[in-house]
Amino acid sequence: MSNGSSSGSQPADEVTVVPFGDSAVLALLGNRIDMRLNARAHALADRLRRLRVDDPRLGRPVPAHASVLLPYDCSV
After folding, report:
1. What's the predicted TM-score (pTM) here?
2. pLDDT tens for each residue of 55-65
3. Distance, CA of 10 to CA of 12 (rounded, Å)
């Protein structure tokens, strides 16, 4: 397991957000197999689920091993 300081890896708390089509964003937490990254992905998805209560534009977050897909509806 890496502490985030090795060459080519992201710092431990860095999140990269990229567009995913025209109605979602993908939050990338890292690019390696790491149970801590998986726990962070699920924690982020849980936080985003709580935000959905107050923001109808947000869809249901979909956590993966080291990323979270967040659909949204900008027409709402």
Report:
1. 0.81
2. 999 999 999 99
3. 6
Closest CA to 40 of 61, 19, 18, 71: 61
Rounded Cα distance, 73 and 60, in Å: 11
Radius of gyration for the chain, computed over Cα atoms and rounded to the nearest angstrom: 13
Amino acid at 60: R
pLDDT band at 76 (very low <50, low <70, confident <90, very high): confident
Q: Where are the beta strands (DSSP E) in 1-76?
A: 16-19, 24-28, 62-63, 67-71
For 8: left if phi > 0, alpha if psi spans -120 to 50, otherwise beta; the answer is: left
H-only helix segments in 1-76: 35-52
Question: Amino acid letter at 54?
Answer: D
